[in-house]
Amino acid sequence: MERETFELYEFKGRKVLFTPARAGYLKEPVPEGLYKYEIRHSDEGFEPCVLTEYILVNHYGTIFSRVPIDLGNDGYIDFSEDIDFIDLNQIMTFDEYLNMLEENYDFKEQEMDMKMIR
């Protein structure tokens, strides 16, 4: 089977995988342990601007994250492409992404997550 490839992005400080496709159209299943979110583009142009669980219209793409992203009480996050959604210019598979996160586990990130839990 041909492995699906994705673009590596940073969304609000977290490394995520991005594809312009909907998850249902991928060549392989999404591995357990990844969270899926969809991005909506603006009505005025094609800039990504909203992250939520599912987009009906103006679908810009899909991201996968190893950690859940808090969508707040409204169930979505408004964001700015040039500040919150940064292309890291790297292509990788699901496996490469998961391995990268395990290999580069940052204890500061763990400490930050623990502070948020407290």
At a glance:
By secondary structure, the chain is an alpha+beta fold.
Task: Give a description of the structure.
- The protein is α+β, with helices and mostly antiparallel strands and about 120 residues long.
- It contains three helices and seven strands; from the N terminus they run E-E-E-E-E-E-H-E-H-H.
- It has helices at about 80-85, 95-105, 105-115, and strands spanning about 5-10, 15-20, 35-40, 50, 60-65, 75-80, 85-90.
- Strands 6-4-3-5-2-1-7 form a seven-stranded antiparallel β-sheet.
- The longest helix has 11 residues, at about 105-115.
- It starts with 5 loop residues before the first strand and ends with a helix.
**Approximate helicity band:** 10-25%
Largest sheet: 7 strands, antiparallel
The secondary-structure element order is EEEEEEHEHH
Q: Report the principal-axis shape.
A: globular
Q: Strand portion, in percent?
A: 35-45%
Key descriptive features of the protein:
118 residues, alpha+beta, seven-stranded antiparallel beta sheet, 21% helix, 36% strand, globular, disordered C terminus
Strand and helix map with partners:
Elements: E1 6-11, E2 14-19, E3 35-41, E4 48-52, E5 59-65, E6 76-78, H1 81-84, E7 85-92, H2 94-103, H3 107-117
Antiparallel strand pairs: 1-2, 1-7, 2-5, 3-4, 3-5, 4-6
